[in-house]
């Protein structure tokens, strides 16, 4: 990836992080930690990888994204707003009564959301259905799904993994966000899903491992996925929960805690400084 493109994507990821903080602060609730760890994914998907049109969010042949770890909706909303699906000012209404931006993605009311998610484990099954539908109808769109590493403790994930392999869904890419923390602690302490790559390989998936915050590796992974035939691809990415905000990084307490006013100002200042450094 050339330096100019990489810098632009880094700026977008930073702005997504700013949107996450904006939303969760004004909501006084939400899940910033795991939202911050997928900012690079969303910037690459929406600005480089996926065929989507904010002016026509329901176009038939659009690529689909299912945020299986639906509690990280603040990240998805920030990306959709930045892309132009709805005004960025809406982010301040996150989780407010009457707002279209609910605590979890809602496909009926939010432009750009392809699947309502929140019950962990179920989103990847919906993504499998979308991918199979494209195969049956001969459509060219691709389907992407982002899962949490704690989420893959759910048995339904592995039923979906078996389904995707059985039906040779090479138009499906799953991203497992391995930040090693879930609401109750580390994933090893709660219910270890390790080794993740080997498990997906045993279920018949093509496996790619990357650093979640390295755009060169992200680009290479998605390009590789396009060459894979007759099997689904999973990108297992090592990420940092709370990435981009020093006092939130690798802190399990930020899984489901919103910043207070002082933390909000400190986080935005840090992100603004990062953005300025990229100019």
UniProtKB/TrEMBL annotation:
Sample GO molecular function, one term: transferase activity
Pfam family, one: Transketolase_N
Keyword Transferase in record: yes
CDD domains: TPP_TK (cd02012)
Ranges for domain Transketolase N-terminal: 13-266
Domain of life: Bacteria
Keyword Transferase in annotation: yes
Cofactor: thiamine diphosphate
Keyword terms of this UniProt record: Metal-binding, Thiamine pyrophosphate, Transferase
Family: Belongs to the transketolase family.
Protein name: Transketolase
Organism: Fumia xinanensis
């Amino acid at each position: 990836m050339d330096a100019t493109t990489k810098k632009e994507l880094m700026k977008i990821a930073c702005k997504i992080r700013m949107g996450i903080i904006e939303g969760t602060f004004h909501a006084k609730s939400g899940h910033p930690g795991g939202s911050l760890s997928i900012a690079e994914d969303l910037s690459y998907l929406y600005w480089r990888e996926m065929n989507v049109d904010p002016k026509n969010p329901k176009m038939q042949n659009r690529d689909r994204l299912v945020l299986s770890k639906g509690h990280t909706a603040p990240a998805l909303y920030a990306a959709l707003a930045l892309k132009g699906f709805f005004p960025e000012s809406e982010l301040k209404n996150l989780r407010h009564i009457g707002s279209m931006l609910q605590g979890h993605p809602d496909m009926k009311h939010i432009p750009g959301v392809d699947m309502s998610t929140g019950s962990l484990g179920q989103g990847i099954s919906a993504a499998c259905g979308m991918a199979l539908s494209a195969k049956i109808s001969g459509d060219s769109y691709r389907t992407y799904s982002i899962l949490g590493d704690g989420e893959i403790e759910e048995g339904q994930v592995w039923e979906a993994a078996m389904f995707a392999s059985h039906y040779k869904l090479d138009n499906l890419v799953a991203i497992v966000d391995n930040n090693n923390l879930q609401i109750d602690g580390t994933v090893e302490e709660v219910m270890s899903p390790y080794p993740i790559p080997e498990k997906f390989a045993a279920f018949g998936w093509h496996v790619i491992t990357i650093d979640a915050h390295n755009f060169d590796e992200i680009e290479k992974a998605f390009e590789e996925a396009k060459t894979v035939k007759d099997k689904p691809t999973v990108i297992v990415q090592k990420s940092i929960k709370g990435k981009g905000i020093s006092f939130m990084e690798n802190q399990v307490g930020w899984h489901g805690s919103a910043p207070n006013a002082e933390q909000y100002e400190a986080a935005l200042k840090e992100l603004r400084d990062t953005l300025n450094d990229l100019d």
